[in-house]
Amino acid sequence: MDTLASLLHTSPALAWMVVKIVIVFSAVMLLASVWTWVERRGSAMIQDRIGPNRAALFGRIRIIGLAQLLADGIKFFFKEDLEPTDVNRGLFWLAPFLAFVPAMLGFAVIPFGRDFVSGGTIYHLSVLDPGNGMGMLYPMAIGGLAVYGVLVAAWSSNNKWSILGGMRASAAMVSYEIGMSLAVVSIFMTTGGYDPAEIISAQGSLPWHWNVVPQFLGFIVFFTCMFAETNRLPFDFAEGESEIVAGFNTEYGSMKFSLLALAEYAHLMTASALVVTLFFGGWQVPFVAHPSVGLSILSFVVKLLFFAWVFVWIRWTLPRFRYDQMMRLGWKAMLPMSMVNLVVHAWLMSHGR
Amino acid sequence: MFLAFALITLLGALGMLLQKNIIVAGLCMVASFFGVAGLFVLLANPVAAALQIIVYTGAILVLVLFVIMMLNSHEEEPAETSRPIQRWVSVILSLALAVGAVKLVLASKGLQQLAEKGAAVPPAVTLQGVGAVLFADHLLGFEVAGLMLLAAMVGAVALTKRNL
Amino acid sequence: MGVVVKKVELSWLDRTYVWPVLKGMGITFKHFIKQLFTPTSKRYTIQYPDMKKVMPAGYRGLHELKRFEDGAIKCVACFMCAEACPARCISIEAEEFSDLNITQGFEEKRPQVFKIDMLRCIYCGMCEEACPKDAIWLRNDYEVAAYDRLSMQFGKWDLMNTYAEADGKARITEDPMPSAPRRVLAM
What is this model's ipTM? Predict the structure, then answer.
């Protein structure tokens, strides 16, 4: 790191920061685009189909269809950038970025590996160092902004189906945020801190000490709310071919559409990183008290990919909810459940457990 | 950094005032809130910044935009017959408010301390600190605010659902 | 009388919604694993250009004009198929051939031109039904496509050779028997 810093004429801290940002965001973006393929292939396998397996590099190297990403990317890149006449131009262009940027930013506080000491300085493996005072409030704040991407895309399209989809989705996202926040609050409470690093170190390396065991109710609430937050089935109300043409992205095409679609997968990655950090011990390796840095990163990535896969898995298992069913679930089941979770844990804590 | 955030705040606010399109005005307000959140971070109060974004941009403004979109009034309403006296009263009132605010800031203890001792970065406010202050020093105010919100919620439900 | 809707009483475990979701996930995962470890040849999907569907017996695909051992066409140009064809895609021109007319005193007929417009053909199999000599068959080849309309006009030799490779027969482009010169009837 020091040599790199001296090469770039900057301080090691700054160089480390840049390296972290580049690695984390490119990894998330790569994973998000890979996950578009995983989703298609996984859904195909679940439904006894085969899925996209034919795209090949140079027409020859067919790596189980992974070249589909490139093909899709190239296709989206070279498609005509259509813009309907009556859209609100500025917002129409802004919306994909409003959707994509928060999805990526949410990843910034998540520690993806153990700290390590090199040359007397501690290097933290998260873009924002722990102790920044924002802690887990940051991804929640950023997650709240994700609504704007959908809402602005829907409104600027000047299309009634889009706006219906956008409004359904934003109402759902806002109402599920409450249950999610309360579930997170009970974790703050039992941990005694709200920094992700603290939450992870408090969970320890034994799987039955991870938050998912004592706070199973909280986990269910949080995970369900994450489906609503990321706008994925069974709660994908931003879209719906059968009722509102395509949803908030009806008028979008080419690269703008692909940004909107990628935003969903980036969100999925951030959401599963949050689940892993809050409930599954983050980078903790099961039964290894002091893992090496590489092992801890590997553990985090494996957990992350598993939960990202669960998102896909659930999507192809459950049928969609109806809108009123979903709202009822959000307000009459998720919110009371997270409140019960909160109160029970407050009671347990007050009795010294 | 301060300049950047202050500019974002001011330009956002200005854009909100000057925009004719009500949705764009709302989005300008989001930008302005972001600037304020940045200023909070610079003031070593990341909790307030996060809460600002969660509460204001993440919830309240979304609801405002939601309602605007639901009503979906694209064309601006024609202005009523303008009464010049309204304008003058509003100008005078806002000037008075601005002068009062500046005076308050200039007379505050913090500024005097700053002048005497020079700038020092205070320890960052944490969520624990906020909680302790809220439930120890300002318990009464907190409870009253909670009660008022509950009353408002009950009132809203009673107003909208007449046949419960 | 309406339909009596049976109301299903859910057990408390099912009413939690979590357990049924897990059960459903188990089912989908079973399918996933099963599909993952099924070899390509045993999957339901037929990956078309690489694999081809084996058509069942009785499938009506591309036509074949049958021939005798010596390569002579079985068709006697009776026009039954052309009459039966609902799409009117068969056009036949007959000719006379054989050396029997001198010794036996009768003529034999065969098509000089036998054309099927594959773009109009609806593969109904009526020609096959109508044929008294079993000379036209619809077999199992479903890949009938071309880049232009003209090559979709299948002539006599195209139709006679459609399954030559599949049956291990030689391609023929000539009748074994020359056609008889047309007799001019002196009135």
Answer: 0.73
Q: Quick check: do A and C touch, 3+ CB pairs under 8 A? A: yes
Closest Cα partner for B68 from B99, B23, B108?
Answer: B23
Domain containing residue C46: 9-53
In a domain, C144, yes or no: yes
Does residue C177 fall inside a structural domain?
no
**Who's near C101: CB < 8 A, 6+ residues apart?**
C107, C180
Give the residue-averaged pLDDT of A184-197.
84
With touching defined as 3+ CB pairs under 8 A, do chains B and C touch? no
* Least confident piece of the model among A36-50, A198-212, C73-87: A198-212
Q: Mark whether C67 and C20 lie in a shared domain.
A: no
Q: Is residue A127 within 8 Å of A21, Cβ to Cβ?
A: yes
User: Model-level pTM?
Assistant: 0.79
Mean pLDDT value across chain A: 82
Low-confidence ranges of chain B (pLDDT < 70): 72-82, 117-122, 163-164
pLDDT tens by residue, B95-119: 999 999 988 888 877 777 777 766 6
Q: Read off the tokens for A296.
A: 């801890």
CB-nearest partner of A45 from C18, C24, C35? C35
Dihedral pair phi/psi, residue A157, rounded to 5°: -70, -20
Whether C179 is in a domain gets the answer: no
For residues A121 and A105, give the distance between their C-alpha atoms in angstroms, rounded to a whole number: 26
Query: C167 — alpha (psi -120 to 50), left (phi > 0) or beta?
Result: alpha
With a pLDDT cut of 70, the percent of chain A lying above it is 95
Query: Looking at the domain B1-72, which fold is it?
Result: Four Helix Bundle (Hemerythrin (Met), subunit A) (1.20.120)
CA angle A230, A141, A307 (to 5 degrees): 35
- Amino acid A282: pLDDT: 79
CATH number, domain with residue C117: 3.30.70.3270
* Residue of chain A whose Cα is closest to the Cα of B47: A134
Nearest-by-Cβ selection for A48 from C18, C24, C44: C44
Q: Are A322 and A236 in contact (CB under 8 A)?
A: no
| Mean pLDDT, rounded, for C72-93 | 89
Classify residue C5 as exposed, middle or buried by CB count within 10 Å of its CB (0-12, 13-18, 19+).
exposed
CA distance A88 to A83: 10
Q: Nearest residue of A to residue B60 by CA position?
A: A174
The residue behind tokens 């590489």 is A294
